[in-house]
Design a protein that fits this description.
With about 100 residues, the chain is α+β, with helices and mostly antiparallel strands. The chain has one domain: Ybab, Chain: A (2-Layer Sandwich), CATH 3.30.1310.10. The chain has 2 helices and 3 strands. The protein has a 3-stranded antiparallel β-sheet with strand order 1-2-3.
């Protein structure tokens, strides 16, 4: 093969490897958040799906509406954190690809 083809193949292989790395990194993204009162702790994946929910005994003092709001707000903040991390990964990938 010619040098140009060899270089093209090597670049394509590096791009493929970097894409696989990005997929692995995206799959590993987790957002963890604890409510300000420490009652609720959640972990979400990179898509914002709830992976873990930990509750302290303090939930006994909450009304159902307060409990619901606390869980939803805490999950929302965790998802925001996970989405920001994913965004950073994609931005870094795009910057690297543009070089």
């Amino acid at each position: 093969m010619s040098k140009a083809m060899d270089d093209l193949e090597a670049r394509a292989q590096r791009s493929l490897e970097r894409l696989r790395d990005l997929a692995d990194e995206m799959g590993a993204v987790r957002g963890r958040e604890t409510s300000s009162d420490g009652v609720v702790t959640v972990v979400v994946d990179g898509n914002g799906a709830l992976q873990e929910l930990k509750l302290s005994a303090g939930i006994a003092k909450l009304t159902p509406a307060e409990f619901e709001r606390l869980v939803v707000d805490t999950v929302s903040r965790a998802a925001h954190r996970a989405f920001a991390e994913r965004g950073d990964l994609v931005a870094a990938f795009n910057e690297e690809a543009a070089e």
